[in-house]
Amino acid sequence: MEIFVNATEIERQKSIAESLRSRFAAEGAEKRVFARTYGCQQNEADTEKMLGLAALCGYKKVETPEAADLIIVNTCAIREHAEKRTFSCTGAYKKLKEQNPSLIILFCGCMAQERGVAEKIKRSYPYIDAVVGTDSNHRLPQIINDVLCTRKRSYHVNDLPHAEFGVIAEDIPSLRASGYKAWVSVMYGCNNYCTYCIVPYVRGRERSRRYEDVVAEVGGLVEKGYKDITLLGQNVNSYSGGVSFAKLLEKCASFGGEYRLRFMTSHPKDASAELMDVMAAYPNICSHFHLPVQSGSDRVLADMNRRYTRESYLQKVAYLREKIPGVTLTSDIICGFPGETEADFEQTLSLIRQVRFDMLYTFIYSPRPGTSAAMRADQIPYEEKLRRFEQLSQTQLQITIEQNERHVGKTLRVLSEGEGAARTEGGTLVSLDSTPPAGIFADAVITAAHPANLEGKLI
Ligand code: 5AD
Ligand code: SF4
Question: Tell me, what's the pLDDT at 2?
């Protein structure tokens, strides 16, 4: 299957959108869309594209589902907890549909492509009009049009093996949520098959956007005045759109004017010295590295199929800190992976004490359908996973406070988010006495440190 959706198909979708818009205008109907996004930044970026297409169809964005004629639910499948929440929130739309039978509800994102979910929706959620897998996002105009014309429920889920599906649709307009912060996807999907992770099964094969397309998008954003641009991918280090990710980042950092460039997420096995050197060389590439370690035990890392060791991870961290002194380092950790012993968990605690991350995202292992770890017999009881999770969070809390305290007394360049809040290069929240409007850079002296934020005074 061809990776790039051909330009004629995109044009066709846009012309369907155009005719829908004329039709609504002729009827004097004001159409409104509401989107609810779960999960990661990739989903945020996808939502902005779906909203962009909905806008072409004539839908105006609103902030409450009650006000909408079209509801887009963009779902996340990474942990069971997120799925339960999604189903219960979606359940609340049933009432809205009863009050307004012409309401269109689309169930999109990672869960849409998950095994068994479309069937569950078919059976138990009759008020959902369409299930839209991530490969069909660009067909939103057609899907809306079909619902309006036929009122038949439809399922746009890929039945190819997961290693074979996955497309890239260029030239879809984004309706960005912010006027100064932007997401730019550089690659999609994942071929790593970490044994706990559902992403490869729901997002399909790894594929990269063309170098020229990414550079043009970033250049356009800088020109429009965007100040905080994040390059996104499940594993940006395996970007393969013509140059290495380090080269792509370098090019994207080379436009004029003050703006910040970030990237997410990196896999430690592929985080290269070349990439760290580029970060060190360009002051507008944020001095922040999110490098998910997942565990401090070599045995668990091997079981997770992470393909690096504690030692090689520590070496990369040492190189990074040598090249970029003071770099903000954040990570993800899963506790209670099947077969994780107390000794393995101790290894994780010792790793976080050794590395001293600025911030840690900790997760309780959640068995995901279709993944090999979920089929293991040695699952850890929930209470034990929770105990480890709490111990890990407590240990990190103290480290985060101490790490935040290192900023006190220093002057940091911050980007205002308005309403008294701003962010450092490392992404730490700074509460300010007064703030310039959102999207303006300023210097602030840091006066106090807390677990979740810093306090500062504008200069
Ligand atoms: N259970 C718990 N956490 C998970 N993650 C991914 N899959 C699972 C799972 N099955 C975490 C990993 C990853 C982050 C985005 O989510 O830590 O880095
Ligand atoms: Fe999941 Fe591993 Fe791919 Fe990240 S690298 S998306 S954790 S399979």
Answer: 87
Angle between helices 41-56 and 7-27 (to 10 degrees): 60
Alpha carbon of 85 to ligand 1 centroid (Å): 17
pLDDT, tens digit, for every residue of 169-189? Answer: 999 999 999 999 999 999 999
Mutate to test the pocket of ligand 1, among 198, 232, 264, 334 (most ligand atoms within 8 A of CB): 334
Q: Which ligand is nearest to the CA of 330?
A: 1
Of all protein residues, the one whose alpha carbon is nearest to atom 2 of ligand 1 is 365
Q: What is the distance in A from the centroid of ligand 2 to the CA of 251?
A: 26
Structure confidence at residue 311 (pLDDT): 98
Identify the CATH number of the domain defined by range 7-156.
Answer: 3.40.50.12160
Which DSSP string do the residues of 174-190 spell out, in sequence order? ---S-SSEEEEE-EE--
| Ligand 2 atom nearest to CA at 265 | 4
In this prediction, residue 456 carries a pLDDT of 97
Residues of the chain with CATH 3.40.50.12160: 7-156
Parts of the chain with a pLDDT under 70: none
Topology (CATH level 3) of domain 181-402: pyruvate-formate lyase- activating enzyme (3.80.30)
Q: Which ligand is the nearest neighbour of the Cα of 196?
A: 1
Cα 169 to middle of ligand 1, angstroms:
27
The rounded distance, in Å, linking the Cα atoms of 367 and 376 is 9
Instruction: Return d(Cα 83, Cα 90) in angstroms, integer.
Output: 10
Residue whose CA is at the smallest distance from ligand 1 atom 17: 332
Torsional sign, CA 45, 47, 48, 52: positive
Cα–ligand 2 centroid distance for 334 (angstroms):
12
- pTM of whole model > 0.85? yes
b/e per residue, 20-33, with b = 16+ CB within 10 A? bbeebeeeeeebbb
218 lines ligand 2 (CB under 6 A): no
What is the pLDDT at residue 435?
81
pLDDT of residue 313: 98
Domain 411-458 annotated CATH 2.40.50: yes
List every span in the chain annotated with CATH 3.80.30.20. Answer: 181-402
Domain(s) labelled CATH 2.40.50 in the chain stretch across 411-458
Q: Where are the alpha helices (DSSP H) in 197-244?
A: 199-203, 211-224
